[in-house]
């Protein structure tokens, strides 16, 4: 595991306020790591609503399947997250491990297994010894604190170089509600792929179906707009919890009273998604790709992701090369409607290509100076319609190769 | 440009026999490089059939558009290829450059522009000064030789580290025909992306529509099964020529007399496609990905390409790590039908995962020993149907980053 903090990390870690109805505790269960916490128990007061989105992988982890099966219930009493072992591609053993983990938590809390949610991140294909949670579960259940957000964010890290936390407030009617979120990102535990986990809690009172609608909508413009390398984990899990301690429940996602909440919720998800990109393996530059003028928003996002996932675009940015030819290539390969002779491309404010050819005023020195920035924006104007999208990624450096080509330890 | 020859290069360059009806010559037009040939003129006897397949990029180069427009004619008198400038994303200037190049060749040869085909590879977005072909064109037209295949393969190289040539013979009825091919691959000229060009000539007599059918079919199992980094050039061009000097013409691609020819043609394309992967930027290992048991051949190819394009799989292979977890990930992200609990994965003959979990007999030492080979096979059995596919790629190393993150010179 790398110990150097990403140069793109925020200058400070935000202190998150408590969320009424959520208590958290962490422990060292010794799943894989020594000398650090690797298990998180979050306990929610009865009546807490839950919503979730998961990896689209056809080969999901056992905890992803566990959560999917219990999401219809709409309520949650506890979340158990471990790092060090993803419990993915573990067959029947993996299903047994999820069941045992849920049993242990349910017993300690005196609730039903059906209200326990699970997430795991770490080594793939190795059996998860869930019995290791036994000796710590009672204490985790007893020790939970409302303000333990940073400890929670640290316990779920794998090769993340910094903990990822964000908070927002919003008005619902006369009440102020709080939204807290944590995430872990593109870390690597040999022999494993990156896993994105994120957990969002609010003291707002929102019915499960409404919370699911808010989450599913916001994720399209936040976590689904971030990419490190185009690879999709077996374990990606994003759960949202509404404890309902602050205000009266809102049943319907289209209730105008939720408008401010929705905006704050999406903004928080965007911040967390950007933090994931800022901690991409080997990242030295944070990259925003903006596409406008596409035939639809969906088309714009496909083109933006084609640019953001292109190894050639990402290596050019690592090399501080204003290589717009590769951006043209990535637009062309996306397979979406595009007219070469209408394309305009900018790096930051520098227009490098216009109407299908190099900008007549292109100045290599100006463009090269811009590329030395730590934050780079690549903007493409397609000139076809009103569809637009914005995605975030990082550059592709030797560091990515070094991290991912390491032998398993 | 790199000068070290890829460790995966073949031990020797094959000597190609002449193809009756094809004469080739090369020259130094000074497009970009100094001290090397950068233009190829191939002249075909009247009546030569032509077929072609091109990049699927929505932003194709000017020569690609030129060739597409002329392919319906079915006949070719000359092919002009230059390296050093791709004539891509060059707007109206680019179209003028293609027209001037064709005019110069047509004048020297006394034929129609409509029978001149063009290909360019190199810098993108810079105007191609086609007038530089003027001083050399008459000599190229006069000097053509039937056996100049290696010189031709060298003139079209960019950062290829070795010329790529292959030859086959086949029986058509009582006659023996020859098929020669050259290709250039994943080379890089800052600020450009890789371009794949390949040209295949035979003395067989095959009508243009039949030749096109043979080509389009064979390309699916050869060049469309090779990937370096998933990025698609603006300029990919594969043209096939049949001079008809050896035998009577075959009109129909389904004529059984063509069976042997088709097999030899596809085999030659596979060899060239593999040579391209062997010269992938920074490549140290040649990788074959085999997928069986998919619901269809198309589904199998999508899964195979998902594996072959995964940066995490490719870096693991670079690190000689038998990281089957990343193969599971790549299967899962392909979006094709797959059942995790039926998956079997092998590295070479080493079964590492079976029926959705680590193989009970898995031996890390045996798997690690296999991964030290220069040629690696990753085989996935999905257990769903009879669909299968095989694709070729290379590993992803620091060398790829170093080559592609270089500043433009």
Automatic annotation (TrEMBL), chains A, B:
Keyword field contains Transferase: yes
Function: Catalyzes two activities which are involved in the cyclic version of arginine biosynthesis: the synthesis of N-acetylglutamate from glutamate and acetyl-CoA as the acetyl donor, and of ornithine by transacetylation between N(2)-acetylornithine and glutamate.
Residues reported to bind substrate: 158, 184, 195, 281, 404, 409
Lineage: Bacteria, Pseudomonadati, Pseudomonadota, Alphaproteobacteria, Hyphomicrobiales
Catalytic reaction list: L-glutamate + acetyl-CoA = N-acetyl-L-glutamate + CoA + H(+); N(2)-acetyl-L-ornithine + L-glutamate = N-acetyl-L-glutamate + L-ornithine
Organism name: Hansschlegelia quercus
Protein name in UniProt: Arginine biosynthesis bifunctional protein ArgJ
Positions bearing the site annotation: Involved in the stabilization of negative charge on the oxyanion by the formation of the oxyanion hole: 121-122
Active site per database record: 195 (nucleophile)
């Amino acid at each position: 595991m790398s110990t150097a903090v990403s140069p793109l990390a925020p200058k400070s870690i935000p202190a998150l306020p408590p969320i009424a109805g959520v208590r958290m505790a962490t422990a060292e269960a010794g799943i894989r790591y020594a000398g650090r916490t690797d298990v998180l128990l979050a306990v929610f007061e009865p009546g807490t609503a839950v919503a979730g989105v998961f990896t689209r992988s056809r080969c999901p982890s056992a905890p992803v399947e566990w959560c999917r099966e219990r999401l219809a219930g709409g309520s949650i009493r506890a979340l158990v997250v471990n790092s060090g072992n993803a419990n993915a591609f573990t067959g029947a053993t993996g299903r047994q491990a999820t069941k045992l983990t849920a049993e242990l938590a349910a017993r300690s809390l005196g609730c039903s297994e059906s209200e326990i949610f699970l997430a795991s991140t770490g080594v793939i294909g190795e059996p998860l010894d869930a019995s290791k949670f036994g000796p710590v579960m009672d204490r985790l259940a007893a020790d939970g604190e409302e303000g333990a957000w940073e400890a929670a964010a640290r316990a779920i890290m794998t090769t993340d170089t910094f903990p990822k936390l964000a908070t927002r407030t919003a008005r619902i009617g006369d009440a102020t509600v709080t939204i807290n979120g944590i995430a872990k990102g593109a870390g690597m535990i040999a022999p494993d792929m990156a896993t994105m986990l994120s957990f969002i809690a609010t003291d707002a009172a929102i019915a499960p179906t409404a919370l699911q609608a808010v989450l599913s909508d916001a994720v399209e413009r936040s976590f689904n707009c971030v990419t490190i390398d185009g690879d999709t984990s077996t374990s990606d899990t994003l759960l949202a919890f509404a404890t309902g301690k602050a205000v009266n429940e809102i049943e319907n996602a289209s209730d105008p009273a939720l408008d401010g909440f929705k905006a704050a919720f999406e903004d928080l998800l965007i911040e967390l998604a950007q933090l994931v990109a800022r901690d991409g393996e080997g990242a030295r530059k944070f990259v925003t790709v903006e596409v406008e003028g596409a035939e639809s928003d969906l088309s714009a996002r496909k083109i933006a992701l084609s640019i953001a996932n292109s190894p050639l675009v990402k290596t050019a940015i690592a090399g501080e090369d204003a290589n717009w030819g590769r951006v043209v290539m990535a637009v062309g390969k996306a397979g979406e409607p595009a007219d070469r002779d209408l394309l305009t491309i900018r790096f930051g404010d520098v227009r490098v290509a216009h109407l299908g050819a190099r900008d007549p005023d292109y100045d290599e020195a100006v463009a090269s100076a811009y590329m030395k920035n730590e934050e780079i924006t690549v903007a493409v104007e397609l000139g076809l319609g009103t569809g637009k999208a914005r995605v975030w990624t990082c550059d592709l450096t030797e560091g990515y190769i070094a991290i991912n080509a390491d032998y398993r330890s």
